[in-house]
Amino acid sequence: MRVSVLPLLSMMVLLPALGAAVLGRVYAPERARRVAVAVASLSLVLALGVLALFQAGAVGAMESWGQVPGLRLSLGLGVTGMSVVALLLTALLTLGLVAAGPRQMLDVATLRAVLLTESAALGFFCVQDLGMMLVFWVAMLLPAEVLISRRAKAQPEARALRTFRIYLLAGSLPLVAAVVLLGLPGWQSGAQAPLALPELLARGVPAPRQTAVLALMLLAVAFRMAVVPFHSWLPVLLARGPFGVGMLMVSAHTGLYLLVRVAMPLLPEAWMAFSPLLEGVGLFCALYGAVLALAQVDLRRTVGFLLVSQSGLMLAGLAERNTESLAGALLQSVAAALPLTGLMLVVRAIEVRTGTADMTRLGGLVRRGPRMAALFFLLGIASLGFPGSMSFVGEDLLLHGILGTHPLVALPLLLTTAINGITFLRAFQRTFLGTPAHGQASVLDTVEDLLPRERLAALALCALAFLGGLLPGPLLRLREHEVSSLVGPAASTEHASAGTHGPAVASH
């Protein structure tokens, strides 16, 4: 049974943008925050409705609003198991950021930027045309760029803008070139929708062109996922950029979605050729990000480098391309986003209360903020793969998938996990335990514990991280079709090239 989900999808994509437009006429910060929370809440309700329809049989269902004149870009919307999870995650994280973020950091302009970023991310996950994916890919960057440029008067903000423009806006140019290369044959032949994903998959890409297209896509994804050496923008944006926008851009994992939805099925031969290189880059990124996180004294930058490390883990899982590693990488995208977003909310709460996120100037906060300390600890262990958490299941699948083919390669992943654990325990000890830093005792003695809305958001993200670890089956089943379709051709290709008859990978 095919159920049309377009009314819900179109409303869900447009609602945050309309909410941002309404905020342009709201001048009271408290009222603007209430409007933003209402819009984000309704977006999450719509995302849950899309999930319900998807499970009722709307697999691949879509309707079209026509085409963009002249470019023949299809305006169809639809969902898959991969995208429906991404929609839910994006809507949930946006609600948490606008509901629990510090009011001092959520002025009207920042709330508008967060909602516009959410709208672009939701559109990216729904469209069924590569050209429109490119439009939303770039649109996700514009709210932050405009907001930072307006505020880039002081030197730190000017440096943040410069870094952001170089790494992300310039990093979109390779994707533009890849889209042009893919759409050129269709435009020349007069195809009705030359960049529609079903048509691209049916037409295929010649092997000689696959290498160039995949190289360009991987370069764009490396910038967006903050893969080493294109990672410097993320810690800077989290520390100096507008609140919430950086976390939402990374935690939505649009780069991961582009690889799974477009690159892997459309460019299979090139993907197999690039896999060893991708695996090496992913492992190096995971380990390098972990080492850099260990060296930080700023809590915001620590979270930024932990995100860099997680991006490396996911890339290594995709490169391996077996059932366990793919399922683990996709699960890890959710498992890392939930607790690390909650951790950043707690870090920002500390920053607002103490005036700093520098661990060398903190200490002893557990006495004034026991709930803050407890949630920081729970969110931290949930992000590091503590048994019972979703990250534990994701990392376990990743390790099993890699161990099955390259046992020695799993050693850097184990080392990465160990270093990340040391980083977190060190941050917790320096921030919450011991005695206050010299000269800071009077400031830290006035710190208030988390407010009810802050506790609720952080506790909800923490609970979801552990609930997903205890019951990972529903999330794995939602993406089972995509995982199977990606592994099947790869397994056949490897089987034919090796001329052997090894055992099939067990499905989870």
Description:
This protein is mostly helical. The protein has a domain at 283-476. The protein contains 23 helices and four strands. The strands form two sheets. The protein has a two-stranded antiparallel sheet. Helix 3 runs antiparallel to helix 4, helix 7 packs across helix 11 (233-240) and helix 17 (370-383) packs parallel to helix 21. The radius of gyration is 22 Å and the shape is globular.
Short recap of the structure:
The protein has 23 helices and four strands.
Low-confidence stretches: 1-5, 491-508
Supply the number of helical segments.
23
Compute the CA-based radius of gyration.
22 Å
Number of strands: 4
User: What is the end-to-end distance?
Assistant: 26 Å
Largest sheet: 2 strands, antiparallel
The 3D shape can be described as globular
Estimated helix fraction: over 70%
Question: What descriptive keywords fit this protein?
Answer:
globular; single chain; disordered C terminus; 508 residues; 4 strands; 23 helices
Describe how the helices and strands are arranged.
Blueprint: H1 6-23, H2 29-55, E1 62-63, E2 67-68, E3 73-74, E4 77-78, H3 81-100, H4 108-126, H5 130-139, H6 142-151, H7 155-169, H8 173-189, H9 197-203, H10 207-224, H11 233-240, H12 245-251, H13 254-266, H14 268-294, H15 299-320, H16 323-354, H17 370-383, H18 390-403, H19 410-432, H20 441-444, H21 452-470, H22 473-478, H23 480-498
Antiparallel strand pairs: 1-4, 2-3
Helix pairs in contact: 1-2, 1-4, 2-3, 2-4, 3-4, 3-16, 3-21, 4-5, 4-6, 6-7, 7-11, 8-10, 10-13, 10-14, 11-15, 12-16, 14-15, 14-19, 15-16, 15-18, 15-19, 16-17, 16-18, 16-21, 17-19, 17-21, 18-21
